[in-house]
Fold each of these.
Amino acid sequence: MNTEIIKVDPEHVGDAEAELQHAGEILKKGGLVAFPTETVYGLGGDALNPEASKKIYAAKGRPSDNPLIVHIADMEHLYPIVKKVPEAAKRLAAKYWPGPLTMIFEKTDLVPYETSGGLPTVAVRMPVHPVAAALIRAEGGYIAAPSANTSGRPSPTIAQHVIEDLNGKIDMIIDGGQVNIGLESTIVDFTEDVPVILRPGYINKEMLEEVLGEVKIDPGILDANANKGIRPKAPGMKYRHYAPKCDLTIVEGSPEAVIAKINELSSAEMAKGKKVGIIATDETRGRYHADDIRDIGSRTDDKEIARHLFEVLRDFDEDKVDVAFSESFDTPRMGMAIMNRLLKAAGHHVISV
Ligand code: TXA
Ligand code: MG
């Protein structure tokens, strides 16, 4: 299949009306279009068309029990696809929609089981990215979109990542430049008595608590439970996602001890003839010795660290790095979201010093 690749400037979406109309037509006919959102690039199909959802699973190589998020652009489109919206969810939507937040509700018959991965519930998100919002409206209201990567690879944060994974497999890729957040949306489940975080993201626990009061964290996503067989409620969280091809280890502890340990480990690997990658920060990059040292950003700005994480993991693949070491990023603002992805990428392999 020939994949059409078009560029749309998020600041001037109005200039691309004809192109976005065309993309909307492709979706209405059951085709697939990858597009930028503020979190990561999404692979879009008509959420109400079971055949389109099947095509999404096939293009990604995704297990069909892993449900898709339905993206909407206007609040009035929420009510037809869900049975009820609790007051707390309405408050959260008023504060954080459009934005990097996904909420889970009981679904109506309008949402096919192909889209919900066989579940009686549906995940809904209203992205704030202007290209995403314009595309959803051009499509008619409901776009199912997982992250636009091959299943198991890090989520795409630039169009080039989507091209690497999906060129030739889908109808169109819309290049809207680099995304802003770089980690997938926070998922909050409203089908239980107390709202539960199923996936941490940019909207963190404190921000949710301000609006909702008590909020729980799904025990299945906590690092402490990783090897105890406690299953995450979001089916996608159980897969070893975000995995680079290299063998990644996280080293945690005081900054000086971490630097010394990573240098010791990387020297040993290099002596064996391995190509070594290191995930460092602005503050530490000059302190390491290895083949491929990647500066992920400054510790004073963990949003920058989040934005670059998946890109660095993909770069290691591109550079054919064999073994990689990373500092730990248990930062206050986005630390939970960053470490959730980094720990999975490392297969929960952590060394404490
Ligand atoms: O930021 C994002 O959410 C991006 C952009 C494209 O919007 N999308 C995204 O989709 O990350 P995906 O498919 O890669 O991740 C969706 C996650 C999976 O872990 C899936 O299992 C979970 O949401 N999920 C979807 N529907 C669910 C449901 N009804 N119940 C529990 N988990 C659900
Ligand atoms: Mg994904």
Amino acid sequence: MPALGYGTWQAKDDSLEKALEVALETGYRHIDTAQIYENEEVVGRVLKKFFDEGKLIREDVFITTKISPLTMYPDKVEDCLKESLRKLQLDYVDLYLIHFPITIVTTGRDTYGHPNIDYVQIWKKMEEQHLAGRAKLIGVSNFSIKKIERLLRNSRVKPATNQVEMHVFLQQRQLVDFCAQNGITVVAYSPLGCSGYNEFLSRYGQTKKLPDALGNKIVAKIAKKHSKSPAQVLLRYLLQLGVSAIPKSVTPERIGQNFDVFDFALDEDDLASLAALEVGNAARICDFKVFGRITEHPNYGF
Ligand code: A2P
């Protein structure tokens, strides 16, 4: 898995199509999408164009998608993946993830976690998809240490990856150590602090005060020292912590900037200053609380 990937959450249609072309031209080879992002068709169209034009072959790219928590039932896993593959115009994905450990049900105005669906049942179906060759690797997202431990005790195929929210204010040290000890890679979503989150919340008539990683003074000082941007410092920090990061941008200049993080290194002082910015769970942005009563489900929790 290339360490730096291109995140596509909240990117759609023409804007994603153009941006993804820029990203592939820039050199991104790891693309992150999901059933619930409703943009797999766009990703598929752009990939096909690059394959048809001979600019890339399938093996050049690492494609991740995820099963939607809204359709996550054991008897639907195969159909969901097949549908994602159809939209992506691919025979296999490189990585297929359980997007969230709870199946989300909406009836009328009520949203809650399905009481009888357990992620271990889903995992067994994910294993079948792996063995059938439709997913080179399988993994999870938004899983805590406890949940991964339970999965490890109940699986034939180990999860390859845990994709979680991770940025300078939520550094996930214990989780990263645990995953490293168990040979599980960590992918950081919202690595820049997800400044676009309120755009998502506004669909539900909500807003949230977001910690401002890109505008942080210490980050700015380190950026100045290396003649880099705050975003580049935030991404470089995650890479030096040994995790993969998938920044999202639909802005060509930023897409280029976010990929240009391999020609400098943060020194010990920089690393110590950035480590001290840790806030922990209070800085979590994507808490899924927008999905009503899912917080009452026994598997809710990070
Ligand atoms: P846009 O897509 O309009 O360029 P994250 O990956 O942490 O969720 O952050 C994504 C948000 O950060 C998006 O709103 C994106 O805006 C913005 N963004 C991405 N790259 C940069 C950058 N280099 N500098 C400032 N903002 C950025």
